[in-house]
Amino acid sequence: MGFRMGIVGLPNVGKSTLFNALTRTAAAQAANFPFCTIEPNVGDVAVPDARLERLAEIAGSKQIIPARMTFVDIAGLVKGASKGEGLGNQFLANIREVDAIAHVLRCFEDEDVTHVEGRVDPIADAEVIETELMLADLESVEKRRAGLVRKLKGGDKEAAQADRLLGLAQAALEAGRPARTVAVDAEDARAWRLLQLLTAKPVLYVCNVDEASAASGNAHSEAVAAMAAEQGAASVVISAQIEEEISKLEPEEAAMFLAEMGLEEAGLDRLIRAGYELLQLETYFTVGPKEARAWTIPRGTLAPRAAGVIHGDFERGFIRAETISYEDYVSLGGEQGAREAGRMRAEGKGYVVQDGDVLHFLFNT
User: Exposure check for the chain: N or C terminus, fewer CB within 10 A?
Assistant: First the structure.
């Protein structure tokens, strides 16, 4: 399991430049004019994880298969998008299909790059996007509730649940709050997700800064960090320009370039880590002579469901999971060493998989 993160923002804030860098492609045309991205560009990238390479080294794995993350570059939204301004309706539909939103905000000054609003103010930019998404959600909620009237009169329980949840969303939206601020009980979680409200999606603010500010940020990114903290959201500082340059270099050259810029790691690493935390995801590994592979699961996943990420038969016929923590696998020299030291555990259906677990599943066919 990976996840889809939609890259959104106003035109000319660096979305497509960032997408190109992250996916190491030129699939998205980065140009200095609005709406240069008409169709959402989709790119899969490998999730960097040094643990996977270490495991492969110990096991002598012939192949390394990292987890994958999907980025969707969605065309720039503008004020009035909820009413179809720009290419609003199409863009809003694209956002519904992603798991989380990476909201790119322009945090750099450059007279050569025009701003659709004629100024550099990331907080105001964030409010424009949020407002448009909230207006689109409010319109959707009102239409859906109107469409449920007949079913409600007939005593339909699913319709009653949907109407109740839509009512909670409507109250929040009318109060000027996004749907993600609504507290939803566990029994309503699935029905809530099925509503596909735009503002229910978790948001990560991406501060696109100039090269000189890449290591420490600037006044604009600090203001965004404060706004994110107020909302209980996350933010990350990235220079799309630097990421684009790094994407063209060989690994050794990229490492030297990062060091020269005073950066410990590429922005991609920070962005993915922030995205994992945002969606409460974690990684487990399967390791053997043939391959070492990383698998992404939601935090709190039980062993049978984790097995099902590999193949449905693994979940249906689950018997147990032979489990070694990453630390034990490394410190004891691999599976055999962990087994001999008594650090391999046989875990059953009730086991909650932990980040970094090395697992081998036994199942009935």
Answer: C
